[in-house]
Specification:
The chain is α+β, with helices and mostly antiparallel strands. The chain contains five helices and eight strands. A four-stranded antiparallel sheet has the order 1-2-3-6, with helices on both faces. The protein has a four-stranded antiparallel sheet with strand order 5-4-7-8. The longest helix has 81 residues. The radius of gyration is 57 Å and the shape is rod-shaped. The relative contact order is 0.07.
Length: 265
């Protein structure tokens, strides 16, 4: 085509040429080509011829690529891709192993803590059972002592150091049980207290400090021995490790109590 359609004015022909052949053309000129072709359908063939000629020109100037170079380049790209994928899989596997290791360690720690808690609970249950068994045994023995016809009941009174002191001793030589029920404790100064002792294997052992009794019926169990002696003494506040027999308030002789009961029979 030697010339454009005569229906186009000079300005339109310049714009069409600029849009076709200017290497720096922008979207504005491209849109003008579309607009001109749309307004003048007869230009479509000329525009298509220009496009086809441009393709032929590019193809004629193109330099063919060396097949070996192309193959080598594609191989390098594939090897890089395979290498990166292998690295990714290695990192992923290492992360999974690390995660599983941390998880296993955490489960192991939780298992140890659970076993420790179970051992503690089991120990507490055993201790509770022992306490309950001791309390039940004590209640059973108290019932026997209080209701058995073989139980000897003896009232213990204090000496001149505590004249108002009063306790009742219960001794059962058949069941070999003995209890004491402290019914009255005379008031002492704040720095003094009452402490009860009993003879065990030839020595005196403390059974504890006697305090003001909230329950006057409370029974205190005492180790049984036919020839045993028990003492109630006045000690420094808090109690002592050895008895102060000089300040004893009362003395309980199992032998005398049993002998006096035989005499009364």
């Amino acid at each position: 085509m030697s010339a454009l359609d005569p229906k186009l004015d000079k300005t339109q022909q310049d714009e069409f040429h600029k849009a076709l052949f200017d290497s720096n053309r922008d979207e504005l000129y491209s849109s003008k080509i579309d607009e001109l072709v749309s307004s003048h359908p007869e230009l479509q063939k000329s525009y298509d011829d220009y496009q086809e000629a441009l393709k032929l020109l590019v193809s004629s100037k193109a330099i063919p690529c060396d097949p070996r170079l192309l193959e080598g380049t594609l191989g390098t790209i594939k090897s890089k891709q395979a290498f990166n994928f292998e690295k990714f899989m290695q990192y992923a596997a290492a992360s999974i192993v690390l995660f599983l290791g941390v998880l296993c360690f955490q489960l192991y720690q939780n298992n140890l803590e659970l076993k420790a808690e179970q051992a503690l609970v089991q120990s507490q249950i055993v201790n509770l059972e022992e306490d309950v068994n001791v309390q039940l045994e004590d209640l059973r023995n108290e019932y026997i002592v209080l209701n058995s016809p073989y139980t000897i009941k003896k009232t213990i009174t204090g000496n001149s150091r505590a004249k108002q002191f009063k306790a009742v001793a219960y001794i059962n030589p058949i069941k070999k049980l003995s209890y004491i029920n402290v019914q009255n404790l005379p008031q002492l100064t704040a720095d003094k207290c009452y402490q009860i002792w009993t003879e065990v294997n030839g020595g005196l052992v403390s059974l504890g400090v006697l305090k003001n009794l909230e329950d006057p019926k409370k029974m205190l169990r005492m180790p049984y021995a036919e020839n045993a002696l028990s003492f109630i003494t006045i000690e420094d506040e808090g109690g002592n490790f050895t008895p102060n027999l000089i300040d004893q308030v009362a003395k309980i002789s199992y032998q005398n109590i049993i002998a006096s009961d035989k005499v009364s029979l």
